TrEMBL record:
One Pfam family this sequence matches: TetR_N
DNA-binding region: 32-51
Tagged with keyword Nucleotide-binding: no
UniProt keyword terms in alphabetical order: DNA-binding, Transcription, Transcription regulation
PROSITE patterns: HTH_TETR_2 (PS50977)
GO molecular function: DNA-binding transcription factor activity; transcription cis-regulatory region binding
Name of this chain's protein: TetR/AcrR family transcriptional regulator
Gene3D superfamilies for the chain: Tetracycline Repressor, domain 2
InterPro entries linked: Homeodomain-like_sf (IPR009057), HTH-type_TetR-like_transc_reg (IPR050109), HTH_TetR (IPR001647)
Origin organism lineage: Bacteria, Bacillati, Actinomycetota, Actinomycetes, Propionibacteriales
Length: 204
């Protein structure tokens, strides 16, 4: 990364951090773009170049974590897809765990603001779509069947991430998100989670 890119990333991070401070102190709705720009010591036009909306400021970290995992998966050589999906799930969670306060704040703001919640759902849907596209590229056989299987697989991966993050955010005790994810995947593998059309659950 060159000097210009480093400076841009530093500015981007500063704007996002200052925005979160203001959102936490004054609330999402009461914080203006002008206030965020002033706190970050940049002009409003500069802020908009980095973040076109206030919602993008809230969700910048989540967006990065999801996009990074898909980009990483695209760069990997051929692998067993269950292993690849597990790696994608764990990569997202590893990134999210580096900033638990930011993630908790995102969930709080999403509960307070319909627009933040809607944009969060858009990010989640984009992740599912991008992951499914990469799975289609890697799945053999009939393309239509591959699309169907890929959509189901990507949806399950995202549901694991969402459920684990929700438990992790709500639980005040330290919890390893990756451990929770592996528990979820083990329950799926052993048939201990009721699914539509599934035979009777194992008793052990």
């Amino acid at each position: 990364m060159g000097l210009r890119e480093v400076k841009r990333e530093r500015t981007r991070r500063l704007i996002a951090d200052k925005a979160f401070e203001l959102f936490s102190d004054h609330g999402f709705g009461r914080t203006t773009v002008e206030q965020i720009a002033a706190a970050a010591e940049v002009g409003p036009s500069t802020l908009y170049r980095y973040f076109p909306t206030k919602e993008a400021l809230v969700l910048e970290f989540v967006d990065f974590c999801l996009a990074d995992a898909v980009s990483w998966f695209r760069e990997q050589p051929a692998m067993e897809l269950p292993d690849g999906l597990q790696a994608v799930v764990e990569r997202v969670l590893e990134q999210l765990e580096t900033n638990p306060d930011r993630i908790r704040a995102v969930f709080e703001l999403a509960e307070q603001s319909g627009s933040v919640s809607a944009h969060l759902n858009e990010l989640i849907w984009r992740f599912r779509t991008d992951l499914a596209d990469e799975l289609v590229r890697r799945l053999p056989g009939d393309p239509r069947r591959a699309e169907f299987v890929a959509a189901l697989s990507a949806g399950i991966a995202m549901n694991i991430i969402e459920t684990v993050v929700r438990v992790w955010v709500d639980d005040p005790t330290p919890t390893d998100a990756k451990v929770l994810a592996r528990q979820a995947m083990r329950l799926l593998r052993t048939g201990h989670i009721p699914l539509p059309g599934q035979p009777n659950l194992p008793t052990a």
